[in-house]
Amino acid sequence: MERVDMLTIKHASDADWPEIIELDARAFALPSPLPRDEITEFRAKVPDEATYLIRDVGTVPGSSTIVAFSLYYDLPLTVPGGAVVDAAALSWVSVSATHRRRGMLRRMIDAQYADWRARGHPLAILTASEGTIYERFGFGPAAFAHRVHIAPAASTFRSPAPPDSHVRYGTPDEVAAHVPVVHARWAAARNGAIGRPAPWWPSLLADRSFRRNSQTSGLHYLLHPDGYAAYRIDARDRTALIEDFVAVTPQAHDDLWRVLTSLDLISSVHASIPVDDALPHLLTDARAVGVVDRPDTLWVSILDVAAALELRTYSDDGTLVLEVGDDYSDRAGRYRLQVVDGRASVTPTDDAPNASMDIAVLSSLYLGGIAAREFAEARRIDVDSPASLTRLARLFDVEHAPFAGTFF
Ligand SMILES: CC(=O)SCCNC(=O)CCNC(=O)[C@H](O)C(C)(C)COP(=O)(O)OP(=O)(O)OC[C@H]1O[C@@H](n2cnc3c(N)ncnc32)[C@H](O)[C@@H]1OP(=O)(O)O
């Protein structure tokens, strides 16, 4: 009988895709089969060279089954200061329930990691299904969101409504013309935002019925010249579920929220908003915006420490020697971070460190989503003096909390 060669990782080809979809549908509780158009659009988002699969050939005589799959997208990520980084976005990681805990995930990540480094990605990103899997590979949670339930009856704005807010429901043609453009404007300016390349939009805008249950409406789009919001109504409890909210200006933010909090016959509005969103402070009763959850929405792994640290800007000037630990790869070392006028230069050094931390912790600090002081109090950053911690905290502080805005 032919031996199983679990070490062989291949890229997907046309014939593999029906099986890949089955594997991932089982792993992620997706409906199966997915619509043909959905699969075609999905494949347009990722070249086969960025897919990784492992087949079990011959364990069961005559069988050949895909037992593990993962891929990465090239996604633009906006970092503090406004640079847009080409991030390797790990996704669709699934190992068959029959083959778990035999090192398949690790083998796929090893292969992808080598490819990301060879292609010069400074960062890798992911959205994590569980909180305990990815730290071992150098990823740390880096952006969060507030899941809120908003009570429309209690949502009285402090300022009067303008005579015309310029918010309108969009026709499908208007939505297709407006939404991708406004999203790109927003993503380019927001710390932590993930841009959506052109092939991402057809599936999002198609809003196929498998994305909702029978009691939930299709997406309603509210358009503003500088923003948009997309929501569904769940008829069972008359909740409005906001799936996408983008405002490039404070005016668009306020105008869209005024409409969303005054939808007729709606008992509650559910949304995912930035942790520093101004909405509660616009209302006479901030408690109208009830935070029900604060999930991590983006994990980051710095792949190239010097390149990544030089890509973002800093909130203060100063010099620190950072000692970085890395049990997974070769990122460990001492780095001198010298910031002048908010821009860093990073060089290797043998000087004594001012602050020591694991690569996953540095990755969590990168977008400013977790403050250095929190990790220091958890003894996951060691500093040589209180002044070094103050400098580290000030350097990595950000104007706006990171907000990813896209699940992938
Ligand atoms: C970015 C994304 O796509 S997130 C989505 C991840 N996928 C899912 O959640 C779908 C359902 N789950 C699965 O498909 C699998 O269980 C996976 C992908 C999570 C893990 O795959 P496996 O092949 O079993 O993992 P593998 O055996 O390579 O384990 C690698 C390491 O991760 C650890 N690990 C794996 N799964 C978990 C888990 N759920 N929780 C904690 N640790 C885990 C292992 O103990 C192992 O640790 P070690 O190498 O340091 O000793």
Features:
408 residues; alpha+beta; Aminopeptidase; Nonspecific Lipid-transfer Protein, Chain A; 3 domains; six-stranded mixed β-sheet; 11 helices; 18 strands; 26% helix; globular; binds acetyl coenzyme *A
Average pLDDT metric: 95
Mind telling me the C-alpha Rg?
23 Å
CATH homologous superfamily label of the largest domain: Gcn5-related N-acetyltransferase (GNAT)
Helix tally equals 11
Range of strand content: 25-35%
- Overall, the morphology is globular
CA distance, first residue to last residue: 40 Å
Protein model, in words:
The strands form 3 sheets. A 7-stranded mixed sheet has the order 7-8-9-10-11-6-12, with helices on both faces. A 6-stranded mixed sheet has the order 1-2-3-4-13-5, with helices on both faces. Helix content is 26%, strand content 29%. The two termini are 40 Å apart. The protein has 3 domains: 108 residues, Aminopeptidase; 149 residues, Aminopeptidase, CATH 3.40.630.30; 92 residues, Nonspecific Lipid-transfer Protein, Chain A (2-Layer Sandwich). It contains 11 helices and 18 strands. By secondary structure, it is an alpha+beta fold. The structure holds acetyl coenzyme *A.
